[in-house]
Design brief:
Length: 178
């Protein structure tokens, strides 16, 4: 059973930026993406501040976001990385399985990674995640290095949108058609 405490808020800035991006996309009629809530059961609550101090997750999470972009079903997870090496332990097997099944149903799955030391946002297509995952489960590296990423999936700020991932999504779709 997974537990939660205040350390779990480390990625909240990244999620806030993605939430703002998704709201902008919704306002402009480009996409409808929602944050998937994580059901928790509180165990310890501070009576004065009424804040949850300890809780456990009721079920395994799938991904952070799910929705549609111009009629295309998408799901993705948001991850933050403080170094040039992304540990695959940050992605869980049930998430990879869900993303795989999502893609089998005609959807597009990916991970948005924020490399905080570089202030660099990256769109990791599911096929690349799967390649790194398979390498790890086959006895290889349990991580991937920044240098292994294809720079064409870098996310740049665009028209007031910090995590403007739609261009990378389009590139991912175009690559699938080739």
């Amino acid at each position: 059973m997974a537990t939660w405490n205040s350390r779990g808020l480390r990625g909240s800035l990244l999620e806030e930026l993605i939430n703002r991006t998704n709201e902008k996309y919704r306002e402009n009629g480009l996409a409808l993406i929602q944050k998937v809530p994580t059901p928790i059961t509180p165990i310890k609550i501070d009576k004065e501040s009424r804040q949850i101090k300890l809780a456990y997750f009721e079920q395994k999470r799938t991904v952070d976001y799910i929705g549609a972009v111009q009629g295309i079903p998408v799901c993705f997870d948001a991850k933050e990385c403080a170094t040039d090496t992304f540990a695959l332990a940050n992605v869980h097997e049930h998430q990879v399985n869900f993303m795989s099944e999502f893609e089998q149903q005609g959807g597009v799955a990916f991970i948005l990674i924020y490399y905080s030391a570089k202030d660099y946002f990256y769109y990791l297509p599911f096929c690349d995640l799967k390649r790194f995952w398979d390498r790890a489960t086959g006895g290889g590296r349990k991580s991937f290095r920044f240098e292994e990423l294809d720079p064409k999936y870098a996310i740049t700020h665009k028209q007031g949108v910090v995590v403007s991932y739609l261009d990378a999504l389009q590139l991912d779709l175009n690559t699938r058609e080739e």
